[in-house]
């Protein structure tokens, strides 16, 4: 089985790191949508599956079951397809329609949660459905991206090392937070090489990760309705909370100003960077890196759709 998985390895990692023009800071974007299946999530998906196969936890009879807002599920679906084993993603009504279509095409079966939990999100109900499926599915395996230390480890040795090797000095890293694995792994690796670097976590208003009140959110892939276990490993110096409409503006600015067509988490970080440095007195231009975890294609009916954005703006106006 492991040989089938290794075929995918050539398409994972070593993604482009480009400099974006900015007068006040040296800004760099790591374009993770150049990975296999167009997202950062294939890194932990590959590492978790490979390790589970090596340990004998996954065999040809295994059914992999996981909760996902999109990208991690798609990465698992593609890799499980190569392994010729069953995969059941548990998704929710907030998923991008493009992601949903891909999951239906690649998965053995798709489970969709349509009822919001007590926080206004879907995550807790998705996890409950995963538990139910695990109990009634023989030979099942749960990657558990929310607590599995292999998630953190994949970013420490992979993405974190790639960024560390690229720079001689680095002052800031802005990282969107969801399961916590990405920021945990990258922050640990970057702090080793750059002890004085500031790790800035970026989250959406309505997410509870950093103690804010829960609120209905519409952009998947960033934020969570529970505090992920892996966030305890992260070495975070500062947190920037971004409103969803500002995240959308960030996506549009990133594309219009630099030609980077990316998803909601990318726009959130881009907006956060501009807010963070807008009123700061800078003696010199700091080096700043941020991640573009996925591309904009899956967001053409939402973030890049004027009608959808106008509807969201109206909802926000009524709520406020």
Automatic annotation (TrEMBL):
<feature type="domain" description="Tryptophan synthase beta chain-like PALP">
    <location>
        <begin position="11"/>
        <end position="294"/>
    </location>
</feature>
<protein>
    <submittedName>
        <fullName>Cysteine synthase A</fullName>
    </submittedName>
</protein>
<dbReference type="GO" id="GO:1901605">
    <property type="term" value="P:alpha-amino acid metabolic process"/>
</dbReference>
<dbReference type="Pfam" id="PF00291">
    <property type="entry name" value="PALP"/>
</dbReference>
<dbReference type="InterPro" id="IPR001926">
    <property type="entry name" value="TrpB-like_PALP"/>
</dbReference>
<dbReference type="InterPro" id="IPR036052">
    <property type="entry name" value="TrpB-like_PALP_sf"/>
</dbReference>
<dbReference type="GO" id="GO:0016740">
    <property type="term" value="F:transferase activity"/>
</dbReference>
<dbReference type="InterPro" id="IPR050214">
    <property type="entry name" value="Cys_Synth/Cystath_Beta-Synth"/>
</dbReference>
<dbReference type="InterPro" id="IPR023927">
    <property type="entry name" value="SbnA"/>
</dbReference>
<comment type="subunit">
    <text>Homodimer.</text>
</comment>
<keyword id="KW-0663">Pyridoxal phosphate</keyword>
<keyword id="KW-0808">Transferase</keyword>
């Amino acid at each position: 089985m492991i040989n089938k998985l290794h075929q995918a390895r050539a398409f994972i990692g070593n993604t482009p790191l480009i400099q974006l023009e900015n007068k006040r800071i040296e800004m760099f974007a790591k374009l993770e949508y150049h990975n296999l299946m167009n997202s950062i999530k294939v890194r932990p998906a590959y590492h978790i599956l490979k390790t589970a196969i090596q340990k004998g936890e996954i065999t040809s009879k295994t059914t992999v079951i996981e909760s996902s807002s999109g990208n991690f599920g798609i990465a698992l679906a593609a890799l499980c397809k190569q392994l010729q084993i069953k995969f059941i993603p548990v998704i929710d009504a907030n998923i991008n329609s493009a992601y949903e279509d891909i999951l239906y095409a690649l998965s053995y079966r798709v489970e969709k949660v349509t009822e919001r939990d007590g926080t206004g999100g879907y995550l807790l109900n998705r996890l409950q459905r995963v538990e139910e499926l695990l109990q009634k599915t023989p030979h099942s395996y749960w990657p558990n991206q929310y607590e599995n230390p292999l998630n953190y480890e994949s970013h420490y040795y992979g993405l974190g090392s790639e960024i560390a090797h690229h720079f001689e000095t680095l002052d800031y890293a802005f990282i969107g937070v969801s399961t916590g694995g990405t920021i945990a792994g990258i922050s640990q690796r970057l702090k080793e090489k750059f002890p004085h670097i500031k790790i800035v976590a970026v989250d959406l208003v309505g997410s509870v990760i950093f103690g804010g009140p829960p609120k209905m959110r519409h952009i998947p892939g960033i934020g969570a309705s529970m505090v992920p276990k892996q966030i305890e490993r992260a070495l975070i110096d500062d947190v920037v909370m971004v409103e969803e409409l500002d995240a959308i503006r960030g996506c549009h600015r990133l594309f219009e100003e630099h030609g980077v067509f990316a998803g909601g988490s990318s726009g959130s970080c881009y907006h956060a960077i501009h807010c963070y440095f807008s009123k700061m007195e800078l003696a010199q231009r700091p080096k700043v890196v941020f991640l573009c975890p996925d591309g904009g294609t899956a967001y053409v009916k939402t973030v890049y759709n004027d009608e959808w954005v106008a509807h969201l703006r109206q909802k926000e106006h009524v709520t406020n």
